[in-house]
Amino acid sequence: MIKILKASFGLSIQDLGRTNHRTIGVPVSGVMDRYSMKLSNLILNNQETDAVLEITFGGCQLQFEEACQIAITGADFSPTLDGEPVSMNSALNVPKGAILKFGKRLFGVRTYVAVEQGFQTEKVLESRSMYKGITPFTTSEKETILHAKSNQTKERTSNSAIKVPEKHFTSTSITCFKGPEFDELNDLQKQQLLETKFTISANNSRMGYQLEELLPNDFPSMLTSAVLPGTVQLTPSGKLIVLMRDCQVTGGYPRVLQLTDTAINQLAQKTTGDKFSFDIQNNI
Q: Is 202 exposed, middle or buried (0-12, 13-18, 19+ CB in 10 A)?
């Protein structure tokens, strides 16, 4: 069992989400950065679908009431175990009673903590991912007890660590494809999409990232259509919205671009004021 001594903004249990329930209006949800989450489970020989703790902007403290093995991946918030710095992207043996803290941000936005066999919170619609209206809680609060299976294996020691490509956090080029309404843009609008460095506005969340730069348009209203995480919508005001993991399943704005899953993962590690450009690929 793991006790939350100090909660941080957006602290939540997440897995790969609810992929089979969009037809009844349930968003996919799940971890924002699937690459980092899968890496944490891989390090511990877990199933890639095992639930992890997603920590946004650090600042939380966890106490381990049982000995276990963990892995920390994603953003680097200077983690320490009982006051001593610990490695990212490697298996860590945690003794009973130890306290894990996250402090100064070095890079990235979201950190993932995996435990052996995953966190054992309640499954709702085949997923443990927290989401408003679907699960009883949307975040993990102070004093919450998170259950994990007791460590049945011998303590393992390893000095090895996985090297994560730096560009996962630093790349300013976001790969995408043309969306269903892309060809309704005029040549100038297409050029603006290709050449503009877009800025993430303060209005960003697990549901979507609004961008500051405008793309003026006079599109007529359209029928509500299916959208996915990574869909880039163009609003009547000219605002672009990049839908993220907690996005709705339908929308009524033109879908001008569609991010790759890798691009969503990279964007999930960016925040207010960060800039990037769209690298538009030819659709297959």
A: exposed
